[in-house]
Design goal:
With 777 residues, the protein is an alpha/beta fold. Helix 14 (502-513) packs across helix 23, helix 15 packs across helix 18 and helix 21 (687-713) runs parallel beside helix 22.
């Protein structure tokens, strides 16, 4: 800039200031709610105020951010106009309330100390993947050169380190680290990118890594990186502390290593997640659409389910055609790939079997030290445990399977007063929810409440959410099943309680997500859930609103021999369907269907079916998929939840397929479907073609019943929910074809369609019933 240009701009700014000072000032108080803390919002407001020559204050409080601005009318109006569109990337504004106030004649614009104003709360920021600016700082800033905990107001840990609101350093696990003079200067300089970045630190004052291998300890970061890279490359297993818990890392190209990890971790068949160095390397091994690329490279950095090109070791995903993949999101991840010769690593949850991911360093060394050949810790505590989130893309939308890191605890807005309601969630893939005004605060993924460790994690997380979000429960809601551990927990709260039927909660969850409050056609397909008649439901067509439901149609009841044990042995459901349709001599009629099945065990199951012993009736979609997967020879015994349906989906061929026949009355029978599948098997039709035709059969059933219910009721809105709609083929096809028939179709986008979304539905039903005076039992 020339001296003359600078002089002209300077004189112009002085003239503008003099002009504004002579004008009558406009003053506004602005209350901003939403995800506005921990995302650089106050520095953003400060810079914006200076841009428009405004004076006043901005402060955090437990309701959100409050801004007082005054200046020229033109400047204030311009400030208000651009504010929403220029807010920080990771922020999320839910409301802006502007109030005219009398000018207070501020002399500058300042950021004032945070306040606690009431029992209302603001949103808590999820954790944010490291930003490009911080990665650049790690190459250029002397005090952060190679520093693995570099962050700023735009990135870094948030929910995992927060202990209380407002979001200030003394309310986080960073309180143990006293800032050096240089970091304190950055933290205190308003125009610095690290102004009020609560986890700000550098090599001189922040956390650091320690590598433990036997009695050997390493603390110098380059030494650690060299050793970890070498261990992984040579086929060793390393436990690595992440943002929300420990991971287990190893080489995805060495089959023996993967099998050893499965053995040590007690994870026989469930797929492993991978982390690739960058997007280009991932594209060498996976098919990635533009939408999937956006998911992978966004600030949340979830695990994205992608189609594999088949170039990885078999034990990564054992027979599935998809792989869960993420890109680096911590500075350490980037540093490690600088030392690795590999394009990717396995990075799977640091736990044993189905227990919660480990967060404590001592426990990690004790437990994971038996699984891993080395354990990498760091000395900042994880307060709130979070697994990696899992998403996929289908039907023009991203969908969440597991809602945790970088998504939780952002609330879901609902058009109901949910204040004081606690929703316990489901027994499996649990998340709970707490109502705060017109928001549902969903917890991070908790897991299956079937062991003491996960139950303890559940109770701990409820207490922490209760304190963090200042929730005072007045009403508790649980699943209809009296023996679910989440239902038992509700009974211990000594509150007015209500129960919500499982599949009604599924539909209500999707309704709440989309702001629906009317009668809809609800298609609720999943594996299990106690029905109002005492049987196990899961293939349901409901006429539902947020208060109640009517069961319009359902899959026919089939005995489930051995109860939950049948889910581990899909051939049992195959035998049950065949016994139901063809009688006790089915093995003699179709001997070729039972090759490889132990005759004595089969005789035992047949006897259970004949006698009706330990064989609860089920209308479950999941158990039907199990039966067909076993019948087609795709999966007869499982090693993890929903393996048989997942393998059946993976077997589907791309070419269009015709539907099998079925009887779609109020009780939907698949006798004709099984007749035609057996006919195809006699003709040695490939399993992939049978899987394709079966999927089209389920699509055709949904279309037929939706049209029947519309003709009967006039309802044109269809809501799809339940774990079966994690099946991409089923979901995308059903959505497209229902829309083609003139229906408005709603499916999950912001919460899981599986049982991880149940709590939102429970909360919505409870809020609506309370509004109508129907709450409490």
């Amino acid at each position: 800039m020339s001296l003359m240009t600078f002089y002209i701009k300077f004189i112009t700014s002085l003239n503008n200031f003099a002009y504004d000072s002579q004008m009558e000032k406009t003053a506004r108080k602005i209350e901003i709610r939403g995800l506005v803390q921990g995302v650089g919002f106050r520095p953003f407001i400060y810079r914006l105020a200076h841009e428009f020559h405004l004076y006043g204050t901005v402060e955090n409080n437990n309701r959100g951010v409050t801004v007082c601005v005054e200046g020229s009318h033109k400047g204030v109006e311009a400030f208000l106009k651009v504010l929403p569109g220029r807010a920080p990337m990771a922020s999320g504004i839910s409301s802006i309330n502007v109030h005219p106030v009398a000018p207070r004649h501020f002399s500058d614009f300042t950021i004032v100390k945070s306040k606690t104003l009431s029992e209302e709360i603001t949103e808590v920021s999820p954790d944010i993947g490291v930003c490009p600016d911080c990665l650049e700082d790690m190459q250029k800033q002397s005090h952060r050169m190679g520093y693995s905990f570099t962050n700023c107001t735009n990135c870094g840990p948030r929910f995992t380190i927060i202990q209380d609101l407002p979001y200030d350093r003394h309310n986080t696990t960073m309180k143990e680290f006293v800032m050096c003079e240089r970091c304190r200067s950055e933290y205190s300089t308003i125009l610095d990118r690290r102004f009020h970045a609560q986890p700000v630190a550098c090599k001189a004052c922040g956390p650091h890594y320690t590598l433990h291998r036997g009695d050997e300890m390493s603390i110098e970061i380059n030494d650690i990186l060299r050793k970890v890279a070498a261990l992984i490359e040579e086929g060793r297993i390393v436990a690595v502390k992440g943002l929300g818990g420990y991971h287990l890392a190893c080489n995805p190209f060495i089959e023996d290593t993967l099998q050893e990890l499965r053995l040590r971790k007690a994870r026989e068949g469930k797929p492993f997640a991978l982390m690739f160095q960058n997007l280009d390397r991932a594209k060498e091994y996976l098919y990635i659409s533009d939408e999937e690329e956006d998911l992978m490279t966004g600030w949340r950095r979830p695990i994205v389910l992608l189609k594999s090109k088949g170039l990885l070791a078999p034990s990564v995903s054992i027979g599935l055609d998809t792989v869960g993949v993420m890109l680096p999101y911590m500075p350490f991840h980037y540093q490690l790939f600088d030392f690795l010769k590999l394009p990717a690593i396995v990075l799977t949850s640091g736990n044993i079997s189905d227990e919660p991911v480990i967060i404590d360093d001592q426990e990690a060394r004790k437990v994971l030290g038996k699984v891993a050949d080395a354990v990498l810790t760091y000395n900042r505590k994880i307060h709130n445990r979070t697994d990696d989130s899992v998403v996929f893309h289908a039907g023009n939308h991203s969908r969440i399977i597991r809602r945790s890191r970088s998504y939780a605890p952002s609330p879901i807005p609902i058009d109901l007063n949910a204040e004081g309601i606690f929703a316990a969630g489901a027994e499996l893939v649990n998340c709970f929810a707490m109502g705060k005004s017109d928001q549902a605060i969903l917890s991070q993924h908790i897991g299956d409440l079937q062991n003491l460790e996960t139950l303890a994690f559940y109770k701990e997380s409820v207490e922490r959410h209760r304190r963090l979000f200042r929730c005072k429960e007045e009403l508790a809601v649980a699943d209809l099943h009296p023996d679910d551990l989440s239902t038992r927990y509700v009974r211990e709260l000594n509150l007015p309680t209500m129960t919500v039927q499982h599949h009604h909660a599924h539909i209500a969850s999707c309704m709440a997500e989309h702001g629906l409050d009317e009668k809809v056609i609800g298609v609720s397909f999943d594996g299990t859930g106690l029905g109002t008649d005492g049987h196990v439901w899961g293939g349901e067509f409901l006429i539902a609103d947020l208060i109640d439901f009517e069961r319009a149609a359902h899959f026919e009841y089939i005995p489930q021999p051995g109860g939950d044990a049948a889910t581990k042995h899909p051939w049992r459901m195959m035998l049950s369907y065949l016994h139901h349709y063809y009688g006790p001599d089915v093995a003699e009629h179709f001997p070729f269907l039972f090759r490889g099945i132990d005759r004595n065990e089969m005789a035992l199951i047949l006897n259970m079916l004949e006698q009706g012993l330990n064989s609860p009736l089920t209308s479950s979609t999941g158990r039907l998929f199990d039966a067909v997967s076993a019948l087609a020879g795709i999966c007869r015994n499982t090693t993890y939840h929903a393996e048989a349906p997942m393998r059946l989906e993976a077997a589907v061929q791309d070419q269009p397929a015709e539907s099998y026949g079925f009887d779609a009355g109020d009780i939907i029978s698949f006798r004709q479907t099984f007749d035609e599948m057996i006919h195809d098997l006699r003709k040695e039709v490939p399993a992939g073609q049978i899987a394709s035709r079966f999927h089209q059969t389920i699509v055709s059933v949904i279309l037929k019943k939706a049209e029947d219910i519309r003709a009967m009721t006039g309802i044109r809105k269809v809501v799809l929910s339940g774990g079966s709609f994690q099946n991409r083929i089923l979901l995308a096809s059903v959505e497209e074809r229902l829309k083609g028939l003139g229906f408005k179709v709603y499916s999950h986008i912001r919460v899981p369609s599986n049982d991880g979304g149940i709590a939102l539905g429970q909360l919505a039903v409870a809020a609506k019933r309370r509004e109508q005076g129907l709450a409490g039992v």
